[in-house]
Amino acid sequence: MKLRQLLKSHLLGPYSRTLLVVVALQTIQTFAAMTLPSLNANIINDGVLAGDNDYIRQIGLVMTFFTLLQITFAIPAVWYGARAAMGFGRDVRRDLFHRVTEFSAREVGQFGAPSLITRITNDVQQVQQVVVMGTTLMIAAPLTMVIGMTMAMREDVGLAVVPAVAIPAAVFLLGNFVVRMVPAFQLMQERIDRVNLVLREQISGMRVVRAFVREPEEVARFADANTELTDTSLRAGRLQAGMFPMVMLVINMSSLAVLWVGADRISAGSMQIGSLIAYLSYMIQILMAVVMATFMVSMLPRAAVAAERIVEILDTEPSIHAAATPITEVERHGTLEFRNVGFGYPGAEHAVLHDVSFCIEPGETTAIIGSTGAGKSTLVNLVPRLFEVTSGAVLVDGVDVRELDPDLLWSKIGYVPQRPYLFSGTVATNLRFGRPDATDAELWQALEIAQASDFVAAMPDGIDSEITQGGTNVSGGQRQRLSIARALVVKPEILVFDDSFSALDLATDARLRAALVPHTASVAVLVVAQRVSTISEADQILVVEDGEIVGRGTHDELTVGCPTYTEIVESQLGQAAVA
User: Fold this and answer.
1) Which of 70, 74, 206, 367 is the S-S candidate for 527 at Cβ 3.0 to 4.6 Å?
2) Mean pLDDT across the chain
3) What's the average model confidence in pLDDT over 553-561?
4) Whole-prediction pTM
5) Region 336-418+493-578: CATH code
6) 240 closest CA partner among 293, 166, 321, 299
7) Which residues pair with 527 in a beta bridge?
8) For 79-102, what is the mean pLDDT?
9) Contact 542/366 with Cβ under 8 angstroms?
10) Cα–Cα distances in Å, from 283 out to 28, 211, 253, 257, 451?
11) CATH label, 2-315, candidates 3.30.470.20, 3.20.20.20, 1.20.1560.10, 3.40.50.720
12) For the residues 517-526, what does the mean pLDDT come to?
């Protein structure tokens, strides 16, 4: 069972001593609570009926002592139990976060971002609630049953037939409800994923929704997902709500049976009134322990489903992982080579890249151009190991990237993605994302090269100006330039631009490329672009079509010898440019 596996690894192991302390405290607290009905019976039988006031005072003081003892041990028991439960939730969220950050794009796509968010938040919360209940209430429940039955048998053995029937009846009813609740809770977690997916899409694609006047359809789509979740939750809620009336029925019927049988035994002289009251108190406390167990059991199905989803993430090994003995030092610096590289997405019928080979030396610029869907972005994603090659090898500084230490590999690469993303914070914190110790002067230098210093200087607080999540408070072109500056701050040996100039006008594009030249004299530069003007001065241009290199050379060479490149140039610059 996945829930047991999760509790064993994250609760019983790290917090075993704390749980032992909780068990000890709960045992003393429960024993003190179970002693009170017996003392009360003694007062009635030996004090009240005999009219012995001194005896009543003496037993009353003893009862006061046990009450204080119960309170004294109950408070730290709950405190330590809650501490263990909160630590459990913290540790599970931490491990989930670290595992998700280790995932490649393949695993993220497999689970989906909405499901990953739900598992780290809602699913962990479901399991944590069960742990809180277990450490604060459920430890006392079995202790109450065992100690209560022992103390009740001391009062009168003849009434044992009542709990012998009542407890199995309660267990049978609970089991029937739990079996029916498991599939309902499993479906409910899937419905939560669906709601998160729809909501995430609608928020991210709000502009598209409004541009195509799709608000009514999107409202209906969210309403469908929301209704499905509501219906499933109501079904599970009705089952959960039905448990408590059944248990209370068992408790009331058991109390009635104790009074019925006990009255006959009192009239026959086999039992005293105080013993009957004490037995009734024990019976109620035992069955109330069953109620606590009922509440706990009602939460178990959903927690079990959540635990399965959590363990599924923890047990999923990233497809991209460090070598057993990674290389941490290299002799060469600033070289990038693709050697007969092929790549295909999992489950795809055809590979995206076929037998791609080229090499970039320090100070050289290699550009990649091709039609949409040719495999350009996939190719550059192989450099920082966002995907793993399916054949061939990608070499950085003469070493296969699969053999390099991941931190060493990433420290050598300055990667500017096709969709620039900025994190919430300031301009400075975003620029220092890859190099926290960069000085302000280095930040301004990177901004100057990226043609972003003017608009950053115009901001109210300069590099300390606020940036919202995703960089939504700056334009697309400004996000792109800040993303380029962030890569430059790292001072990498290899610069990878994945169509990173598309949002820039031609003049800004030209100034930026001119500013890069003196700062990339010892850097290998790989550029993916759609515009011929962006790559015309590259040392080497690769023309990619259907995952294969169909042209290789300089701009002038390709305009003569590569029909695909010639067609691209004609479509953008006209026939005169080719001539």
Assistant:
1) 367
2) 84
3) 86
4) 0.72
5) 3.40.50.300
6) 299
7) 367, 497
8) 91
9) yes
10) 20, 67, 11, 11, 80
11) 1.20.1560.10
12) 88
